[in-house]
Design goal:
mainly alpha; 2 strands
């Protein structure tokens, strides 16, 4: 259980921790405590050069997501700031992860690169298999193509189509002659 601290004690602790490159996760936890205790003191820390604003909010997010987990701090430190930030960001953008999922992804992230983690967390996991293809159509062919795309939900925008990607997948799935 965390020992209750005053905002002034937290400011001093955060300032001391920020000066040492030892433990980013401990700094993240203290920043989270400070943010919860006193938003004005948190803002002062981020504006006086102790910790940059973006980095401070990223650390607060990391502490908020990984604080409730049973993962030991040294294991989180071993995964690294960048990977934990990716996992925490994914958790806050609507994909709320269970404790078991967080633990699995932390173990997985420890054994893989940042790029591999980004690909795993990507909304479209088979993104690497897709390619962009430019096709040249006559006016008659384009009219036929446009009608088919609109049939499957691509909205007309000016002389072209908007959001045509999803419609193209549906057209591709139709049997020949359909």
């Amino acid at each position: 259980m965390a020992v209750p601290r005053t905002p002034a004690e937290l400011v001093k602790l955060v300032t001391d921790l920020a000066g040492k490159p030892a433990s980013f996760y401990d700094l993240a936890r203290r920043l989270h405590e400070l943010h919860a205790a006193s938003s004005s003191d948190f803002r002062k820390i981020t504006t006086n050069g102790v910790v940059g604003r973006r980095r401070a909010y990223q650390m607060v997010r990391i502490a908020r997501v990984f604080g409730p987990s049973k993962i030991p701090a040294p294991d989180l430190e071993a995964v690294g700031f960048t990977k934990l930030n990716l996992l925490a960001e994914k958790n806050e953008k609507g994909s709320v992860l269970t404790t078991a999922e967080v633990e699995f992804l932390v173990d997985w992230a420890a054994q893989h690169t940042v790029k591999a983690l980004q690909d795993r967390l990507a909304k479209d996991p088979d993104k690497q298999k897709k390619r962009v293809v430019a096709i040249y159509l006559t006016q008659a062919e384009y009219s036929l193509y446009r009608a088919a795309m609109m049939k499957f939900g691509a909205p007309p925008v000016g002389k072209g189509l908007g959001g045509a990607g999803d419609g193209a997948h549906e057209v591709d799935r139709q049997p020949e002659g359909g």
